[in-house]
Amino acid sequence: MSADNLTRTQRDDLRTIAAMIVPASDAYKVPGADDPAIQADMLATLGRDTKLVAAALDHLARLAGGPFAELDANRREAVAQEFRKVGGAAAATLVRVVLQCYYRDDRVLRSLGLELRAPFPKGHVLPDGDWSLLDPVKARGGTLRRAP
Amino acid sequence: MKDPVDVLIIGAGASGAAVAWSLAETKMHILCLEQGGWMNPAEYPSTGRDWEAKFYGEWSSSPNVRGRPEDYPINDDNSPIKVVNYNAVGGSTVMYTAHWPRLHPSDFKVKTLDGVADDWPIDYDALTPFFEENDRIMGTSGLSGDPLSPLTHPPMPQQPMGLSGAIVGKAMNKLGWHWWPSDTTVATMDYEGRARCINLGHCTPACAQGAKSSTDITYWPHAIRAGVELRTHCRVREITTDENGMASGVVYYDKDGVEQFQPAHVVIIACNGVGTPRLLLNSKSNRFPNGLANSSGLVGKNLMFHPYAQIYGYVEEPTDSNRAPPTCLWSKEWYDTDLSRGFVRGYGVQFVRGAGPVFEAVVSEQKGILPWGEDHHRVFRKLNGHRLGFSAICEDLPEEHNQVTLDPVLKDSHGIPAPKIDYTISENSRKMMEHALARGREVLETAGATDICINSPIPWGGWHLLGTARMGTDPNRSVVNEWGRAHDVKNLFIVDGSIFVTSGGVNPTSTIQALALYIADQMKQRLANLFD
Ligand SMILES: Cc1cc2nc3c(=O)[nH]c(=O)nc-3n(C[C@H](O)[C@H](O)[C@H](O)COP(=O)(O)OP(=O)(O)OC[C@H]3O[C@@H](n4cnc5c(N)ncnc54)[C@H](O)[C@@H]3O)c2cc1C
Ligand code: SF4
């Protein structure tokens, strides 16, 4: 449902700002947040965030004086800075949507050394640790404050 | 008309479950009405790849963000701390983090010891057997023998120290400060039908493994087997009274939204520190024009949240991040009053193991430490999986202006007025929070942490809802007596966090449930003359 809730201009602007938040990197072998699969994930899962994200994109376009995606690089940078500064809850939602889709992409997780799976049912293993670290605390002791 | 039940409990959360289980042995007809439904762990967030994103929507800890039909809205605009809860069988224990300290003996005597607030009408010793019983049923893990905490006997060993615990422990040792593995309700071995923790790292919002003890998987199966009836998706609008001023039953909306009346001989409220005053204030009648059990005017007053002062940073070595329960270690170094610190009373500390990648990215971007653009990737790799946190649970003292009232406009889906919160952080709490942040910074810096960030108070940290129908012997200064019965209505009891007189500096649920079991026990002992 969500893909239809953003206009073509809004989608172009979303892609453009997403790439400015997280650009692709050869060094880390990761796509940018404007990657088609990541963008598709965003649009498919916008859900309850659609309204605020659309509002944020409209705000972005107002700051840009037209489609944000069509600005030259310098102007885009200045508008993005302003948007980040004054965009409020709507801008924060947009950024969160970008990041939550980016950081569950297989290629990104792989680059971070994380497994490509839900936590359940495999879980994780935690080292028990060296409990002799507690010895100084035990040696120091202490008393509970007395209640009359 | 429906047949009356002997005991009607409203709310199936931490305290409602405990009181239902305890009273079941009387073989009375006990009915619990709960506005939420049963949970399905197969649908919990940690079963899907979008597990972190869900926390920002349908699995938010805020009922206002979640907005499920089972939730009621809360107007907390006039509070720097927002209320979080969960409405279902299990109540807020479905969501809670399972950190399990209890109040200290000295917490029951703050007036005598420190000249502030009021003493409780009961002491720690009265609750000791119920703490023990509750720990057995909830199934706790921990290490007995902490010199600075009340003695506990957890039936399961403590959680692993993990990477984060070792870093914290070493730093605390360097500073010569107290720390200890936390008691938690996370099962570290298979226990009474619960599978052991496999470190999904997602205790909040809910444990798909069933290792975290929420009352839907601990007390409730026992209580139901013992004959308690639990009716879900039933939202109580008001408690009715008869011509003698006794509670006669409740008006509620059933799962189809149809208004029903359920008569009862005894009514027990277990709706938490916000839901309980809301219900009492909405139960107005000619005889009780200011709401039920409110002749003292204190229903809804003295709300205590425990402002959380949280400070965190990033160390070079990896931490447990989301690969472990968030609970880990506690410290009671600053628990007791030391007036040279500039404030009275104190705080417990809960160390935090870390965060998952989405949460890390979102929060760090908001804090301004994770840049946009080219450098994003380098910085993210420095932060992600390296977070270490220190959260101080600051004792909030009761103040009447911190309160729950009924919102004149906002209503839930059944047209019942929503609660409105007015709350400010006191000067004493502010000083305590500053002190905690300074100590937390020392710990983090000793551990080698950089990029230190602060959440003080944690804005979405209104998880401890206390004090709004306080206990006491004086009917002018309290709502319920020393065994939980309303001063004004002799067959009405309250068993949740609203009856706390003071809040201590620890998470409250262990004490809430011990109190609920204690009140049930008092009721059982007085069955023949309960209404005298
Ligand atoms: C995110 C989070 C983390 C937490 N972490 C911890 C922790 O680590 N340690 C700790 O000790 N505590 C923690 N808590 C707090 C803990 O969950 C609560 O202290 C505890 O659950 C309170 O118990 P209660 O019985 O008072 O209320 P609840 O458990 O909230 O139960 C109240 C029940 O009443 C029902 N109800 C309310 N009104 C009505 C009505 N009108 N009709 C019918 N039903 C109604 C609700 O649906 C709910 O199920 C946390 C809470 C949250 C939300
Ligand atoms: S860390 Fe353990 S208790 Fe927490 S959700 Fe995972 S399995 Fe459950």
Structural description of this entry:
The complex is a heterodimer of chains A (148) and B (532). With 148 residues, chain A is an all-alpha fold. Chain A has one domain (3-115). Helix content of chain A is 54%, strand content 0%. The radius of gyration of chain A is 23 Å and the shape is elongated. Chain B is an alpha/beta fold and 532 residues long. Chain B has helices at residues 14-24, 63-66, 110-114, 124-138, 162-175, 219-225, 272-281, 357-367, 376-383, 427-446, 509-525; strands spanning 5-10, 30-33, 75-78, 180-181, 229-231, 235-241, 247-253, 259-269, 308-314, 329-331, 347-352, 387-394, 403-411, 417-422, 450-455, 492-494. Chain B starts with a strand and ends in a 7-residue tail after the last helix. The model of chain B has no long low-confidence stretch (mean pLDDT 97). Classes of the chains: A mainly alpha (148), B alpha/beta (532). The interface between A and B is large, with 55 and 70 residues. Bound molecules: flavin-adenine dinucleotide and iron/sulfur cluster (SF4). Residues 186, 197-203, 207, 209, 211-212, 325 of chain B line the site of iron/sulfur cluster.
